[in-house]
Specification:
single chain; five-stranded mixed sheet; about 40% helix; about 210 residues; alpha/beta
Length: about 210
């Protein structure tokens, strides 16, 4: 009998350690559950915040205050838009036909064009190699379809070589650049921009809406 007591105590100690081990496991499991819930909430919240711009593969080295790189494009109506020969402020949009934010922005750019008339020269230039399906190669026809489907009222051009995009695109579609008559960049916007902001940027570039 004297030899059994230590064995019983050992068993009790072993059971105590085992209970302690399970307790720690339960605590750790609870911690992991809480952490997983926090991560899940963070992911859901990040996904609920809408993006206002589509990612673009080009980041041109231009900034506000720089001299605007000269460019020339042929618009869908067959006219030449040559930045070096335009005396009024210029608004240049680099867009992608597949970009939903570019599609949404057409309404405000239409309104901007209507408000300033000849006091402001606007042009939108395609800046993606992909068409509206994001898979096939962009063509002049795709840009024409974009303009017709969305009721674009300002000059729009197809740039198959992406020359303008390489000079101006800021890593996001659309990129909207404001250029004053001295050919200096006065504002650069990316993504969906409100009409009020577009008007303010146009005025900063020196445009004055005609009085009604």
């Amino acid at each position: 009998m004297a030899n059994r007591a230590p064995a019983v105590r050992a068993t009790r100690n072993s059971n105590g350690l085992e209970r302690m081990g399970w307790g720690r496991i339960a605590a750790l499991a609870g911690t992991f559950v809480v952490m997983a819930a926090v991560v899940a909430i963070a992911v859901v919240n990040s996904q609920s915040v809408p993006k206002i711009a589509s990612d673009a593969p080009i980041l041109a080295h231009v900034a506000v205050g720089d001299s605007a790189p000269p460019f020339s494009v042929t618009t869908l109506d067959g006219k030449t838009f040559d930045s070096t020969k335009i005396a009024t402020p210029i608004v240049l949009e680099v867009f992608a036909t597949w970009c939903p934010h570019c599609q949404h922005e057409t309404g405000d750019i239409n309104a901007l064009s209507s408000r300033f008339g000849n006091a402001l020269n606007l042009v939108a230039v395609s800046g993606s190699p992909y068409a509206m399906d994001r898979a096939s190669v962009e063509t002049l026809g795709d840009v024409r379809d974009f303009a017709q489907q969305l009721g674009v009222e300002y000059p729009i051009a197809y740039d198959g070589d992406l020359t303008v995009a390489k000079a101006y695109l800021q890593g996001a579609y659309p990129t909207i650049v404001f250029i004053n008559p001295q050919k200096k960049i006065t504002a650069i916007e990316t993504g969906e921009v409100s009409l009020d902001k577009l008007v303010a940027d146009a005025q900063k570039a020196g445009a004055h809406a005609p009085s009604i």
